Amino acid sequence: MIEQKLNELYQKFKSELGGVKDRAAALNLKALYLGKQGPITEILANMKNLSIEERKIVGPIANGLKEKIQQDVEVSLQKFELDEINLSLSQSQNKIDLSLRDSLLAKVQNHGGAHPIWSIQREIEDVFLSMGFEIIDGPHIEDEYHNFEALNIPADHPARDMQDTFWFETEAKPGGFRHLLRTHTSTIQVRGMKQRRPPFRFIAPGKVFRCERTDASHEMVFHQLEGMLVDKNVSVAHLIYFMKTLLSEIFKRDVEVRLRPGFFPFVEPGFELDIKCLLCKGEGCSVCKQVGWVELLPCGMIHPNVLRAGDIDSREWNGFAFGLGLDRLVMMKYAIDDIRHIHSGDLRFVEQFKSY
Amino acid sequence: MHISMDWIREFVSLPPFEGKDGARKVATRFTMATAEVEEVLMSEEYYDRVVVAQIQQVEKHPAADKLNLVTFQFAPGKTHRVVCGAQNVRPGLKVPYAPLNTNLPNGMVLTPKNIRGVMSEGMLCSGEELNIPSKVDGLLELPDSAPIGQTLGEYLKKKRDVVFVVDNKSLTHRPDLWGHFGMAREFATAFDCPLKNPFSINWENKYHDLIAKQKGTASPITIKVHQDSSCLGYFGISIDHIKVTESPDWLKERLNTVGLRPINSIVDISNYVMCELGMPLHIFDRDSIEGGGVYIEALKNDEEFVTLDEQRRILKAGDTVIRDHKKTLVLAGIMGGLNSGVTANTSRIFIEVANWKAAHVRKTSVRLGLRTDSSQRYEKSLDSLMLKRTLFRTIELVLQLNPDAKIIGSLEYDGPNLSDDKSLIIPTSVSSIVRQLGIDIPEEKVLHILQSLDFKVSKDGSNWKIEIPSYRATKDIECEADIVEEIGRIVGYDNIPPKTPELRIRPVRLSPMQTVHRKIRDYLIFGERCFEILTYPMIGKDLLTRASMNDQTAPKIINALSVDHNLMRPSLIPSLLEAVSLNTRARDEFRLFEIGRIYNLNIDKKKNHFADEKHVLGIAFYQHERTSIMQCQNAVERLLSNLNVPFDIRGPMEKFSCPLMPNNWLGKHPFEHRDIMAMGKPHGTVFSVHPLVLRNFKLKGHLSLALFDLSLFEKELPKDKAKYIPLPKFPGALFDFTVVAPEGSEAQSIVGIIQKQKISILDSVNIIDIFALPDGKRAVTLRLSFLDREKTLTADIIKMAEEKTLEALSSQGFPLRM
Q1: pTM listed for this prediction
Q2: Which spans in B38-137 are helix H?
Q3: What is the tens place of the pLDDT at every residue in B698-717?
């Protein structure tokens, strides 16, 4: 009986609270129900007429009801306060157009960005660092010895034709070497070998130069990344492992690679590494010239003559070397149509690779 | 190089191709084993579609002077009309017509075309369009005997050959693959089919005997090879009763297939043998050799020589030539002379089969810009032991086409003794090969591959000695690694599963320079919102001049592609100016930077190097409306403190001028200019560019640049010198006041005066506000913070400190503003 009455009482309170319009009314309602003359107090006062069993049931219910009413009133009060503040905020003169971020403004340069060549170089550097490769560098202005001779490309070797070289006017000293702009980062091989004793592994990213008319796909300055590993009992199988790992890291997916014979005087055996065309997945398209494979990087086991030029005993040590064209990778990754944008200094190009 | 698969099949029985896809599969396998096949050509389709047509009428195109409307017929009773631009169109002429949808060898597929208002369907073809050599410009002129309506394939009796186009670059190291027989050996090995060798010892002996039978007659031409020439061996033989004719179809077809133009039966034989055996040769009209002998020698003096292609060329002293006793006949290894070539009237010939030093041939051919089928082969280092085979094969073909021909005299030779050549023997073992490839290969398989490549193997237990055929030993094969390659490529690198190597762990770090480059990039991009750019390291004199700089120390490239890129930049400033100028067209405000190298000739000749390279950071802040010098300075200050470099940015001093800016350079602003001292030395500069130089770059607005020499970080990184001081336990006190600063004074000097007073409780000095007063004076409001870490400050001590400060300022020209 009493239970039912209490329930009805709470329902009545709820409906009255729903009709309340302001803080004062809510406080009044609370006073009405929980005050000394209020119905709850009355019920609690009448408890003494009940049996012990009944009291045990009714007591907690009545107290619970009292708490519930208090909570409901608190919630209602908070809501009235919130409404008041929101109302005053909404009447303020300083309301902001939240869509008007810097990126909408014409005049502000609101972000910066790394050159895509650097971004990809850094990514590859990190992959190699994680595999224990050092990163080294060398001069752009080189001599014939480091660019050719030491790499098993003697004077008048037809392989010199494959690389159109920029030459400097150097006084011809007997036995001296002419100066040139390095045509590949392989120049680092000898410098790197002479500076350290095996076993070692390093990469060398940097600019290289070719005396070549420029057009959308040819540049006279571009970027390569040379790599070299020298240890004991290194095999072609190891080379394939490293190249596969590297390329999967770069392209963020499993790439299919194939090695085919390629001639580079400083490696033996030498390979051209092709990857299965990422665009057509090997079906044949204009990017891979219908072959299904894209030539990506030359690599091979270091030629014993090159090891010798680096003062390394080729009977005890061997290793592999590879070269990667960074510009090609960037162009593949972003589908860039003209290699000349890379050195243009044009912000309309670089700002497409912005970072906030 | 074009390889005719039909020709290859003469030497090896490859299974027939299954269509074009089958041919492509074979090409791919060959690419994986030997050399890159760039393209597979099948003389297919268009031979069945293109027909012999006869022109009936030629009218001018109503809307184009150079075009004609040509009416022609290829089937009775029906005429067709196309628009044609060829100049040799004339009624009655027979020409090839390619109807719609024909796929021409150049990849073009014919579709209906509207040419200046006239619809044209299909086309009349030139020789070039059909891959048929033609001496006439314009349409290919077919003889009157050509039956109208016959397809080109029927008319030319074209065999269905498949051509593999091999990338010459991938044959750089394989002199033996510049002929079909050498290629056939590769096919035989790669596809494990037996090689048919028609050039056996018996075959050679047959020709020895044949020549020996001529005993009694003296050789009309003798040979003398001089020591100073580049000759490695010279064979010659004379043959009479030659009839120079058009070559038979099979010969012409072969040459056409591999991309050579048939000329006459004798010239064609020499080309055929070259394409078959890879060794070039030369056939003289013997009547043009005066004096009965040829002399192979180095030229003593420069001379003019007219080569077979009718070009006048200047030969230099030292070039090897073949002469008679009066004149030069041939430029050795490269091209014959117009004066001794075979003509239609030739009846007596002299055949030269010789070998030349590769480097020599290459040097002369590069200098003359004359690369021929012959020089291309010689510069790969050919094998002198192949000379005789080449000569005999030539004789064989000459006799085959000229049954009446007669060898005169004996086989002449001069040059190094060829039997002296020792064969190359390389020791190896199967286990060593297997270890280097990283895959298990059975011994029998290794042996089989080597033998199939004509290598001779002698075994001593597990030690093998491999005798390399002479034609592989000229340049290509020299050590064990080369043997490893032979096995690897035939087994197929694809069949080698990747393996992780076991490597020692060792920590790797970026070098100090790389760390700094990364820090700079990150800071400028994220902290200062700059864009990174790259510019060419090569610039031109014009750019330097516009930047008011000279080219004295810039290294000069002697074979540059243009005068805009023939100097290595001695400074980053010109490149930055150019890049900024490019970008002002589209925007009012931007910031960019480049980490690049500058190059300066080493003026101090004692130091034994050519040029110095330095890493330099260049930053450009551009604003159209007002100067960015303060933003630029602040960026530099924040950057340097981020790099932990001890630095000072201060007014320029003559004694410590910044090395990155030329002395007395016009391009800097008269007073918006500060130098950066780092580790006690001038290492950089921040300045605005002078309007005069801005004008040279058509730059409107304001540009501030900062340059910093990064060679500072080559050896080590500056240490992080941050130090923790326990937070104060006692309250401090602030003292705000305003002084009057005279015209031209810098705020920095006020702070400096206060810091010099050595007030022990002074914790910090900062400027709160500055406002302008009349007469160029300024009111500067400062805030001093006093603190004693040991005890609470007393009013007396604070007062003393305040008075000392104000007195010092007032006495040095900064009175308190009341």
Answers
A1: 0.80
A2: 46-49
A3: 999 999 999 999 998 888 88
Do both B411 and B442 map to the same domain?
Answer: no
Tell me the CA end-to-end span of chain B in Å, nearest whole number: 95
Task: Read off the pLDDT of residues B519-556 as tens digits, 9 standing for 90 and up.
Answer: 999 999 999 999 999 999 999 999 999 999 999 899 99
Distance (Å) from the alpha carbon of A35 to chain B's nearest alpha carbon: 52
Q: How far is B686 from chain A (nearest CA, A)?
A: 20
Q: Are the beta carbons of A262 and B582 separated by less than 8 Å? A: no
Query: What strands, in cross-sheet order, belong to the sheet with B293-298?
Result: B222-225, B293-298, B320-323, B328-331, B335-336
Domain boundary among the residues B679, B713, B747 is at B713
Q: Are residues A186 and A121 in the same domain?
A: yes
Would you say residue A348 lies in a domain? Answer: yes
How far is residue A154's CA from residue A266's CA, in Å, rounded to a whole number? 11
Rounded to the nearest integer, the mean pLDDT of chain B is 92
Q: Same structural domain for residues B550 and B616?
A: yes
Domain identity same for A84 and A132:
no
Percentage of chain B modeled with pLDDT above 90: 71
Give contacts of B584 with chain A, Cβ < 8 Å: none
Q: Rounded distance, CA B197 to CA A117, Å? A: 54
The 8 Å CB, 24+ separation contacts for A74-82 are A76/A17, A76/A20, A76/A26, A77/A23, A77/A26, A77/A27, A80/A22, A80/A23, A80/A26, A81/A23
**pLDDT at A9 > cutoff 90:** no
Long-range own/partner contacts, residues B688-691 (CB < 8 A, 24 or more apart): B688/B627, B688/B628, B688/B629, B689/B577, B690/B666
Domain co-membership, A263 together with A195: yes
**What interhelical angle do B180-190 and B265-277 show, nearest 10?**
30
Return the beta strands (E) in B397-468 as ranges.
406-414, 425-428, 456-460, 463-467
A31 touches chain B (CB under 8 A): no
User: Quick one: pLDDT at residue B250?
Assistant: 92
Give chain A's domain count.
2
Are A107 and B589 a contacting pair at CB < 8 A? yes
In 3D space, the residue among B226, B253, B565, B554 whose CA is nearest the CA of residue B415 turns out to be B226
Is the pLDDT higher at B778 or at A57? B778
SS3 assignment, position A50: coil
Statement to judge: residues B681 and B746 lie in one domain:
no
Q: Under an 8 A CB cutoff, do B589 and A342 touch? A: no
**Residues B179 and B39 reside in one and the same domain:** yes
Structural domain of residue B433, as residue ranges?
Answer: 425-491
CATH code, domain carrying B15: 3.30.56
* Per-residue pLDDT tens over the stretch B474-518: 988 999 999 999 999 999 998 999 999 888 888 998 999 999 999
